[in-house]
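Could someone model manganese (II) ion with this protein?
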Amino acid sequence: MSLLAERGVRWTVQRYAVLEYLCEHRDHPTAEDIYRGLKERLPAISRATVYNTLELLKEHGLVKELVIEKERARYDFDTSEHVHLKCRVCGRVYDLGVPPPSVSAEAEGHRVEELVCYAVGVCRGCREEEGA
Ligand code: ZN
Ligand code: MN
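Reply:
Sure, complex below.
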């Protein structure tokens, strides 16, 4: 919280609500999910506010943006390095408890700055349904 204040960014009820929503919903919601989830409690909140707040929180390293689907970003309260699995059946995105792959900081004369990767498969729940 203090991180934003230190940089002169004001905490508003709506900004705080977006961060809180992400803290409470660890299933990697999209901006639209967050908007719908907050609308009832905060009727004045707009999609633009949610989008702008996510940008702000991301810039300040308080949330992580996951670009797994081209059309829509998902957001993660957990900013640590971890691997995700996208279920191709239900479309949900899960945390995978495996160490992230690594690559050296320099490879073939290129400088590597970030390794973006995720797994695709069928989640546990969907597998159980397949078996049923
Ligand atoms: Zn699934
Ligand atoms: Mn995650």
